[in-house]
Amino acid sequence: MDYAREKLDFYCISPGIVPLMRSTMEPTRWYVRVRSPCWSLICRKDWSRPREHSAGLRDLELWLVWKGRGWMRSRKQEYPLLPGFCAIMRPGGIYDAGHEETNPLGIAFIHFQAFRGRDSAPLPAKTLAKWPEFYQLEDVDFIHGVMRRIIRLEFLNPAAASGLLQGLLLDLLKRPLFPKAALSAHQSRRSTILSLAEEIRSATDAPVPGVSAMAASVGLSLAHFSRLFHEVIGQSPRDFVLDIRLRRARHLLMECDLTVQEIAERLGYRDPFFFSRQFREKIGMPPNAYRRGKLH
User: Fold this and answer.
1) Which own/partner pairs from 14-17 qualify as long-range (CB within 8 Å, at least 24 positions apart)?
2) pLDDT tens digit sequence for 56-77
3) Are residues 101 and 126 in the same domain?
4) How many domains, the chain?
5) Of 178, 206, 221, at which residue does a domain stop?
6) Is beta strand 106-116 parallel, antiparallel or unpaired with respect to 60-67?
7) 172 is in which domain, residue-wise?
8) Nearest Cα to Cα of residue 16 among 98, 101, 112
9) Whether 166 and 240 share a structural domain
10) pLDDT by residue (tens digit) across 177-232?
């Protein structure tokens, strides 16, 4: 008896459909078919995956990050997107995503359908719900290579493409879920940013650090820090720093006799003229005029 045929029940029910699950594991056979679109690419700097993209998902999608850095937010969790991140997306899921413009994502994706039995009935939702959605893979180059081969075969030999996808899914479904340690590190960074923002708000006598210094203090790149800060605090770090500086500036102009230059230095400005210009743009008058107007 053919060992591979017995173990995988590897025959084709209809063109482009091959078994998904081992017949020795369950009496019912499962099948997949690769569908368009399938591609591997480097995302543009302004790339994002908005909520509308998830809402429009009508089939399954295997999604791999092979380059870059970004984030993905599902219904219950946010995941860091690094090389090796893999997702099996399905209709009804939430997969909002973005990336660092200075380190854009390289992604590969394959759309496919999953069927039950010889009648090509769709895979039941309760079965699909048992499939893990997210993985962090170590052999990213190998997985990416298999996916690129599937993408190439989609037009040349659809049945072979579906066969390769079947093998890849068999492998993925046996792998561990996305490691909790990676999520813990991501959540830790969020907590660190909350603490940093509160520390800056409370330190009324200390200079307000610039955005680059803030990013360096938590060990993140400027782009990653800016995105995460905006998500956690609700405004960009640049606007946050400016708001804190101008709030303290108004207080100092009213409560002490420091010159404008001294106030600028205390707030962390290197150039007092730049401070005066920002103050006038946001408050509507120069610092000295603000002081005179409040005192009289």
Assistant:
1) 14/120, 15/158, 15/159, 16/158, 16/159, 16/161, 16/162, 17/115, 17/120, 17/159, 17/162
2) 899 999 999 999 888 898 887 8
3) yes
4) 2
5) 178
6) antiparallel
7) 3-178
8) 112
9) no
10) 666 655 556 667 777 888 888 888 887 777 888 899 998 888 888 888 888 888 77
